[in-house]
Specification:
Structural class: alpha/beta
Shape: globular
Bound molecules: S-adenosylmethionine
CATH architecture of the largest domain: 3-Layer(aba) Sandwich
CATH topology of the largest domain: Rossmann fold
Number of strands: 18
Number of helices: 14
Number of domains: 3
Strand content: 15-25%
CATH superfamily of the largest domain: Vaccinia Virus protein VP39
Helix content: 25-40%
Largest sheet: 8 strands, mixed
Distance between the termini: 47 Å
Radius of gyration: 23 Å
Oligomer: single chain
Length: 462
């Protein structure tokens, strides 16, 4: 059900996306009306959260059932402490095809009454609240003039980024995300010498209720979108292999790969941005994975001209890895919930050259007979199917491979790929079932469709 306006994008970006979703191949296949309908559904579903939360269970540390039980107990404790109701129940389901996934239904939208006291938060903070987070102080942009800790307030997300920091009210475009209790006075948020830290508003009546995972079973339950978990399985790592994760931070997929290898072998994680490196290390440590080696490095330069490896770290000689994951930096237009983005069309389109450079390095670093998986969390053709078409033309040594599991849709028309090639691609397309999934469908079915927008291609190097 739609409760929010469609995602707020710059007009040029909306037009660009429309041209993608109404490209000539799609129009010829499904007609103008259906193509336009899918596009409108895309804009609508992007601003809403998926109807479940996906958790990757650390099955290298404990059996799935044990983790499911412990998680249920922890979440019950959490819910009991924030609810007067003694009979709280937590539904946690397994996925029929993916052995390390737990699914928790999200309850929403719920009938929550708006109050007269309003706190306004940034769009990113608003999205986090819709996925179960409390409001952290740095996310607050406006609050009532005399707000004190303990006041009950309604929280709104600033859709266009137009609210002035420190304002006492805001009349611009905003979306209600729920009610909460202020944990600090207004002066502590806006007038302190140091920027405020910690929870600013504890959500008690969120519009979408999903458990807060802050500190819940840190080593055993890892929050990860379902398509991201699928990537690890599609790569198919095996114990003893040497695997490269080219764009690794914060390390969700790196850790999954190492866990699937039973921590035997080597997972090399490269990340260009230095201050993201610690997150990868922390995640590896939290999940007790020792086979991960992390380096701050620009992966476009990760191929050494020397056929013999001089040092342990990058650059690496060609054909050094059994499998390579290129989870590419991308325009991120598949992320949900996302109520608005101020990105220009130029920014949205800026990723393709970098993705191609990274792809060149990926192919060179992969052994013959090795597997390369390319993934993005965006919905454009240029970063997905067109990149695949370019790759198949540029590298005759590559062939597309079937994916296991394949629970998303096939690739989108528009890049000149054949029907067989499109069937080998996996595109998570929430717009295809938006508003039709219905709560009657089993959760695992809904979970496969009501995802973030995501794309996966698997290649073999011959
Ligand atoms: C989509 S995110 C990766 C998410 C990660 N694979 C995970 O599952 O947790 C892309 C990452 O690539 C990094 N990145 C961008 N350009 C890069 C480059 N040239 N070399 C290495 N990392 C790069 C970004 O800083 C960002 O952290």
């Amino acid at each position: 059900m739609s409760v929010f306006p469609i995602i707020n994008l710059r007009p040029a970006v909306t037009e660009f996306l429309q041209s993608v979703f109404l490209n000539t191949e799609v129009l010829a296949a499904v007609g103008h009306q259906e193509a336009e309908c899918r596009f409108q559904k895309l804009l609508s579903c992007l601003s809403h959260p998926p109807s479940y939360t996906c958790v990757r269970a650390s099955t290298h540390l404990a059996p799935l059932e044990e983790i499911r039980h412990k998680l249920g107990e922890e979440l019950k404790k959490q819910m009991c402490s924030s609810s007067a109701d003694e009979e709280v129940s937590v539904q946690i389901l397994t996925h029929p095809r993916i052995p390390d996934v737990l699914l928790l239904p999200v309850d929403g939208p719920r009938p929550v009454k708006q109050l007269s006291s309003e706190v306004v938060v940034g769009a990113q903070c608003g999205s986090a609240v819709l996925r179960g987070a409390h409001v952290f102080a740095p996310g607050i942009i406006a609050s009532p003039k005399y707000m004190k800790a303990g006041d009950v307030v309604s929280v709104f997300s600033d859709l266009e980024g137009k609210c002035t920091r420190g304002a006492t009210s805001f009349q611009g475009k905003k979306a209600f995300v729920g009610n909460g209790v202020a944990q600090m006075d207004r002066s502590a948020i806006f007038c302190a010498d140091e920027p405020a830290k910690g929870i600013g508003v504890r959500m008690v009546e969120p519009l979408y209720q999903s458990p807060s995972f802050d500190g819940v079973l840190p080593g055993l339950a890892f929050l990860q979108n379902l398509p991201s978990v699928v990537v690890g399985h599609v790569l198919g790592p095996r114990p003893g292999e040497r695997i490269l994760d080219m764009c690794a931070a914060p390390g969700g997929k790196t850790c999954h790969i190492a866990a699937l290898m039973e921590d035997q072998g080597e997972v090399v994680a490269l990340e260009r941005i230095r201050n993201k490196i610690d997150r990868i290390r922390q995640n590896a440590q939290m999940l007790r994975l020792r086979s991960i080696k992390v380096y701050c490095f620009n992966s476009t330069q990760a191929v050494s001209s020397d056929p013999v490896q001089e040092s342990e770290g990058p650059p690496f000689p060609p054909e050094s890895f059994d499998r390579v994951l290129l989870d590419a930096p991308c325009s991120g237009l598949g992320q949900r919930p996302n109520m608005g983005s101020t990105w220009s069309l130029k920014e949205i389109r800026s990723y393709t050259p970098l993705q191609r450079k990274l792809f060149h390095a990926a192919v060179r670093l992969l052994k013959r007979g090795g597997v390369l998986v390319y993934s993005t969390c965006t919905v454009t053709l240029a970063e997905n199917e067109e990149l695949v078409a370019w790759a198949l033309n540029t590298f005759p040594c590559l062939t597309l491979q079937p994916q296991e599991p394949h629970i998303g849709a096939e690739g989108m028309l528009g890049a000149g790929l054949s029907p067989e090639q499109l069937r080998l691609l996996q595109r998570f397309s929430p717009e295809l079932s938006w508003d039709q999934t219905g709560t009657a469908a089993p959760l695992s079915c809904r979970a496969n469709r009501d995802t973030i927008g995501f794309f996966i291609a698997k290649f073999l190097k011959n």
